[in-house]
Design brief:
Shape: globular
Number of strands: 10
CATH superfamily of the largest domain: Aldolase class I
Distance between the termini: 50 Å
Radius of gyration: 19 Å
Strand content: 5-15%
Structural class: alpha/beta
Helix content: 40-55%
Number of helices: 13
CATH architecture of the largest domain: Alpha-Beta Barrel
CATH topology of the largest domain: TIM Barrel
Oligomer: single chain
Length: 316
């Protein structure tokens, strides 16, 4: 396969007629794909849709005004927005999903993938994979509350091991969401290297043949996306950490799908300019300095002159 699938450039049309412009999505990252990061990448034309980090639905459902405020940075771009939620009470999740659609989300996604120790301790996120029947109930109630509007789910290939995939897939088939995003690791593997990651995705995809299946995990380059397409036959991709290293990655993947692959569309100087704009958009608030360092570390490397210069500036 010289190029990536042209099908990834096709809109993903949901039951209510609303759509994502293509199947190349920015993966949600808590504390990253928010505020200044979103506004700067959008202004540079580097994303065609947005996928919010999870919104916690704890003991009550936020009012519409609060949910509208949560979505405001994404809706302001004018691009379709997938709003992700997390929680343990299916009825509350269902009502939150309904309200999120009312305030502008094109799809509401249930996070059943987050491996954070804090999240797992609350029995949400990736912990939900240990209770497939709960996933089926939560997604079914979300769909009932949302009517014809889209509902999706983010998963991993198991909690403890990949032998859990058939039960997880059976629960998802029962609920029949409009889209599945799957990370090839298990929850317990966190972000460690694994053997045959794309085989795992291929196996999970085979268990969910009738649901649009978006691949996730270690998507840093066009070559990573190509291998995932070739070996797992995913219907699209959602790079996450790869956007920190290369904010133009989504556009580069799209170019490869169109038959115009390029090594990189951003020079080091352009990446530095983007980083500076993110800093300016955040107002250089002290609480955002760690965020800027995180991006710079991924974008340039910890030993780079760019990272060392930023570290010195923040230290002073």
């Amino acid at each position: 396969m010289d190029f990536l699938p042209k099908e990834w450039l096709q809109p993903l049309v949901f039951r209510d007629g609303r759509a994502l412009p293509n199947r190349i999505l920015p993966g949600p990252m808590d504390g990253v794909t928010e505020g200044s990061f979103v506004s700067v990448l959008d202004a540079a034309g580097l994303a065609d849709a947005w996928f919010t980090p999870f919104i916690r639905i704890s003991n009550g459902v936020p009012k519409r005004a609060r949910l509208r405020e949560k979505l405001a940075p994404y809706l302001a771009t004018g691009k379709p927005v997938i709003a992700q939620i997390m929680g343990i009470y299916p009825d509350l999740l269902a009502e939150a999903a309904r309200r999120l659609h009312e305030v502008g989300a094109v799809c509401v996604d249930l996070n059943c993938a987050c491996p954070s120790v804090t999240v797992l301790g609350s029995h949400s996120g990736g912990y939900c994979l240990t209770e497939p029947y709960w996933m089926a109930e939560a997604l079914t109630k979300m769909k009932a509350a949302c009517g014809s509007h889209a509902v999706s789910v983010k998963i991993r290939c198991g909690f403890y091991g990949t032998d859990e995939m058939p039960d997880i897939a059976a629960a998802i088939r029962e609920a029949a969401p409009d889209m599945v995003t799957c990370h090839f690791r298990t929850v317990r593997e966190l972000y460690k290297p694994v053997q045959e990651p794309y085989l795992r995705l291929a196996q999970m995809h085979a268990l969910l043949p009738d649901i649009p299946f978006i691949g996730s995990g270690d998507l840093f380059t066009i070559e990573d996306a190509r291998r995932m397409a070739e070996e797992a036959h995913v219907d699209g991709v959602a790079p996450a950490r790869g956007l920190l290293k290369n904010p133009a990655l989504l556009k580069e993947i799209a170019a490869a799908c169109a038959g115009n692959p390029c090594a990189s569309t951003l020079t080091p100087e352009q990446r530095l300019a983007l980083l500076n704009r993110i800093g300016e958009a955040s107002g250089h608030k002290r609480r955002d300095q760690g965020f800027l360092l995180k991006i710079a570390r991924e974008m340039f490397g910890e030993d780079s002159s760019e990272f060392q210069q930023l570290l010195e500036e923040i230290s002073n």
